[in-house]
TrEMBL record:
Biased composition, class Acidic residues, residue ranges: 19-31
Highest taxon listed in the record's lineage: Eukaryota
A biological process from GO: Rho protein signal transduction
Subcellular location(s) of the protein: Cytoplasm
Keyword Coiled coil: no
Protein's name in the database: Rho GDP-dissociation inhibitor
Species lineage: Eukaryota, Viridiplantae, Streptophyta, Embryophyta, Tracheophyta
Length: 216
């Protein structure tokens, strides 16, 4: 049974977790969105702010939760909107590789390439608008030649709307090394919240190779 992680974790590419019964067309979603927490009907955030406005303790709590949100610019939409903006690959001694989402593949179909045996981490940037998003999490699943080599669930948390992007950086990890680790990988990345709303569901390919790609 897959274990859900509720702390920051890296999106590791490891061949130590292979399962020959898992192939690329398996239902990688498992329980994502199928067991959404029932939180009651959503209402626009502007309406939330009007509720119990004469209760000082509730008002202070809402102000603390919302932080620097410009309440004059809140819309009438009840559902939160989460937009994943970029995926940045961080590697010591190399420039940050900032990739806009959706990812763009090269002529070989790869969105990016990593050197085998190299240290790296992933950073996501995203915006939240309209309303508070509760229980935002992502799932990252990776296959090599049809065998699942990575299956990770990471809880990010609850975020209020704000104009500036949020960032989340995974822990540092190391790519597998050796001739059998090199080659093409396929992956799926999905962001979902406690209401079961999917904010991103993306498939892509990447490569692990002997050397870093030449700088453009």
């Amino acid at each position: 049974m897959e274990k859900e992680e509720n702390k920051e974790a890296s999106v590791s590419i490891s061949n130590n977790d292979t399962d020959t019964n898992d192939v690329e067309n398996d239902d990688y979603d498992d329980d994502d969105g199928k067991h959404a927490v029932v939180l009651g009907p959503q209402v626009p955030l502007k309406d939330h702010l009007e509720l119990d406005k004469d209760d000082d303790s509730l008002r202070r709590w809402k102000e603390q939760l919302l932080g620097d949100v410009d309440t004059t610019k809140l819309g009438e939409t009840a559902e939160p909107e989460v937009t994943i903006l970029t995926l940045t690959i961080l590697t010591p001694g190399r420039p940050d590789l900032i990739l806009p989402i959706p990812l763009v593949s090269d002529d070989k179909g790869h969105a990016f390439a990593l050197k085998d045996g190299s240290t790296y981490s992933f950073r996501f940037s995203f915006t939240v608008s309209n309303n508070i998003v509760s229980g935002l999490r992502y799932r990252h699943t990776v296959w090599k030649t049809g065998v699942r080599v990575e299956n990770q669930k990471v809880m990010l948390g609850t975020y209020s709307p704000q104009p500036e992007p949020y960032t989340y950086e995974a822990e540092e990890d190391t790519t597998p090394s050796g001739i059998f680790a090199r080659g093409s990988y396929t992956a799926k990345l999905k962001f979902v919240d406690d209401d079961g709303k999917v904010h991103l569901d993306m498939s892509y390919c990447f490569e692990i190779r002997k050397d870093w790609p030449a700088s453009p």
